[in-house]
Amino acid sequence: MIAYVVAFAMGFGAAWQVQAWKHDAAELAAREHVRIAERAATLARAEQSNKDSKNAKTVADLERKLRDAGRLRDPYAQPVNCGTTNTGNSGTDTTQAGGVLSAQFAGMLRDWAAEADAINIAYAASIADAAALRGLLASCGPAQ
Fold first, then answer.
1. CA-to-CA distance for 134 and 41, rounded, in angstroms?
2. Which residue has the higher pLDDT, 130 or 11?
3. In percent, how much of the chain has pLDDT > 90?
């Protein structure tokens, strides 16, 4: 009978030790999972930062080209003297001739376009970040 009690105690101790090992292994796996996810997020952040800097350079180049292009025109403008002949008035306002917008109004439109572009770029970057992060977390698998 004592042999049975000793064997039971030994078996119980071994089962307890196996449970402890399983717990330690699960803890180690969870820490490794977090480390991998953090490293993947850091790499994704660096990659997105590179993309953002390239996009910002492209936007700056396009804004410079737009400024250098000159004055904006209204494509729907009606000619000022439609159907009449010029009476020799040389004091005609050049902003009204041919639908050319004033410099102030063109500048305001460019500013609004730049603000809208900045908002769109930030939105697209946040959507891309969220999708990349979801993909990274899904590829790491569920935490134990």
1. 10
2. 130
3. 8
